[in-house]
Predict the 3D structure of the following.
Amino acid sequence: MTLGEKIYQLRKQKELSQETLAEQLAISRQAVSKWELGESMPDIENIVQLSKVFNVSTDYLLNNNLTTLTNTTKDKKGVKRDERFVILMVTLAIIFKVLVIGALFAVIKTFLGTIFGIIFLIIAFFGATLIIIPMCLMFKSSKSKKK
């Protein structure tokens, strides 16, 4: 099945008109028509948007050999697998941060004294936080773009 056929089929399953789909993608109705007829192809950004609108993978849309519809898998709470993975990774990073900083604090305190240990603890905590905060912000911005 071609990309155009898949777009047509998915649009009909969602009971969307070409005009409605075009509005959701911020493109013209004629562009949707050309895609469905195979006269032109959507760009990468529109492929990603189509996958979100139809709740299918980009692989399904782009691979002519894939004829089985594969929905994005969500758990009971509606959280996607990749979102759960990011949450897990950020949690593990925080735990690792606490363990490493604690161990290094103990070593520095032993060899250099309490003042150097406390200074290291403060610097290490904020330094590690500067690594984790961008991860959280990227995750948050990717979620807001999906809406």
